[in-house]
Amino acid sequence: MLCISVEGKFTPMKTIGERNLTYAALGLKYGYHVDELDVITDDGYILKIFHIAGDKTRPVLLLPGMIQDVEVFIIRGNKSLAITLANNGYDVWALNPRGIGRSRKHVHLNPDLDPKFWDFSFHENGYYDLPAAIDFVLERTSERQLSAIGYSQGNTVFYVLGSTRPEYNEKIKVMIALSPVCFLYHLKPLTSFLLPLIPIVGNSLRSIGVVELLNDNSLLKRLIQRLCSLKRIGYELCIQSIIFQVGGNHPEELEPEFLPSIFANYPSSMSIKNIEHVSQVALRRKFAQFDYGPEQNLVLYNARAPPKYDLLKVTMKIALFVGGNDSISTIGDTELLRHKLPNVIDYHLFSVEKLNHLDFVWGRNMDKYLFPHILSVLNKYD
Fold first, then answer.
1. Above 90 in pLDDT, residue 54?
2. Summary count for the chain: helices (H), strands (E)
3. 8 exposed, middle or buried (CB, 10 Å; 0-12, 13-18, 19+)?
């Protein structure tokens, strides 16, 4: 079986705006040198971690969401989270989990030839990638703890980490969850309509050897990036008709002129297994490990059903930042998470009425609405 991408390959497109600028190049553009370093996980994945040097006693680790890489934390320049943290003296680290961007490497497996490379979901991100990155940062800084900020699935992995490897709870000063994603019980109509289709599509793609979606050279990704970067057509088709329908409407925070910067690196690749795991959490209404079916579950888990993640073991301090118009991380689901976690030190429902799922990383006024709250929490628990 070959790891092929949906729709084959497409001739690379020309540069548009800041298209194809890396995290390091964007950092330099806004006044900071960025080190690109490799982190190797226990199961052999080679992850790229990006570092803007600051006060080593105040390390902060950033984790992006699904189909995003770390550029999402810096594309707004001086109004971006990474630059804001650096300007405030923090030692800023940003991790691309396995399969995303420059983390598409393994000590033995070839992501283009070995299907096993893509045999992972957010579970492996939490169980392998996060511990490797945390230990790497703490060793480099000679600190015992770090702070962390995870956006969307980038905070889901911390619930996996804390429940499956509880010794790491003590290594986190505080984890700030932007648009928290754990339970997916109250999704809005379009997303809830699409979810039941994911297992069907996933099985169909696997049957023809597809285990990776949105490879950098795939026709589908290139078409998305080319079309969605067009200000008028891209905004109407990609933003208003799709992204706002899935994540919540808020045109005031996302101007058409910003589309080329967004789609320079978005969407990023992902494994079929990851989106299947997300759909299982939503459809079966259980925040649990991957369900392989009764027979294989018996072999792997010694039970016919996969074990739930025990959130009572997630004892790290957690701040939940919620948008009132977020159609993915809904108020109902974040309230449930708030009551399930044992150490929520802050639950902030933003007063910006239309704050949606993508505003947390794409919004043009987050330096006013969001970052002061982030800095307040970091300073309090530093």
1. yes
2. 17, 11
3. exposed
The 3-state DSSP composition of the chain as helix, strand, coil percent (nearest 5) reads: 45, 15, 40
Name residue 213's beta-bridge partners.
270
Strand partners for 177: 150, 320
| pTM over the 0.90 mark | yes
Angstrom distance (rounded) from CA 183 to CA 261: 31
Residue 16: pLDDT above 50?
Answer: no
Cβ atoms of 165 and 127 within 8 Å: the answer is yes
Q: What is the largest CA-CA distance in the chain?
A: 55
Give residue 161's region: left, alpha or beta (phi > 0; psi -120 to 50). Answer: alpha
Closest CA to 255 of 370, 358, 352: 358
pLDDT digits (tens, 9 = 90+) for 122-142: 999 999 999 999 999 999 999
Q: For the CA atoms of 171, 174, 175, 177, what is the dihedral angle to 10 degrees? A: 170
* Category of 53 on φ-ψ map: left (φ > 0), alpha (ψ -120 to 50) or beta: beta
β-partners of residue 347 are 320
Active site residues: 152, 357
Categorize the per-residue pLDDT at 340 as very low, low, confident or very high, splitting at 50, 70 and 90: very high
Q: Can you tell me the distance from the alpha carbon of 111 to that of 91, in angstroms, rounded to the nearest whole number?
A: 31
Question: Which amino acid belongs to residue 355?
Answer: L
Query: What are the residues whose beta carbons fall under 8 Å from the beta carbon of 362, sequence distance 6 or more?
Result: 72, 76, 253, 254, 258, 262
Dist. CA 330–CA 183, nearest whole Å: 9
Helix (H, G, I), strand (E, B) or coil at 175: strand
pLDDT given for residue 61 in this prediction: 98
Instruction: Give the tokens for residue 347.
Output: 């639950």
pLDDT tens-digit map of 177-215: 999 999 999 988 778 888 889 989 988 998 898 999 998
What angle do the packed helices 153-164 and 130-141 form, to 10 degrees? Answer: 90
Structure confidence at residue 20 as a pLDDT band (50, 70, 90): low
